[in-house]
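Give me structure tokens for this 215-residue protein.
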Amino acid sequence: MTIAPVCNRKIWPAIACLTALLCAGVAPAGTSSLFDGKTFTGWEGNLAIFRIEEGAIVGGTLQAPIAHNDFLCTTKQYRNFELRLKAKITGEDVNAGIQFRSQRVPNDHEVSGYQADLGQHYWGALYDEARRNKILVAPDEATRKKAVRENDWNEYVIRCEGPRIQLWLNGVQTVDYTEADKSIPQEGIIGLQIHSGKPSEAWYKEIVIEELKAE
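Here you go.
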């Protein structure tokens, strides 16, 4: 049995309380934890590519090149939500991303849909993976450099309400995008990517979601 830590507001600032709860696998009030830090419950994907290490989901390896893009995905679909998680990447000139409102491509390793990008000069960008195959919105260089913590954990916040998508990276807003194409699905799975290329690892932890009321 896991006993949740007690947060004393007179002693700890609010952020310390939140971190303690997440590390214990307990989601704050109003949210649901998507990852318990120990098992792949609620997720599906290639477990030869993804593993659990130090309470985080890890995709890829530093021991060999990554043959193709791969994704660990939720078994549940989400429509309007605020997703919070921490991510970091290791390796040389590597890339990864967080899929949302996405779908698996049948008979393929790819996932199609929106992606909050990680790595290289793409940090904080909104990319359309395996669909329009382009960056929809990206922060300027000054904003990106202000937001990114190189070689460390970075906190992403992804908020979707109707056609509006907003991204924050370490508290800095990098995207405020409204989808004009009404044919683009506004519901789908959440996926964690490891990108093809040089040996690399993408780490993800403290994954919590708050489902929002219908627009």
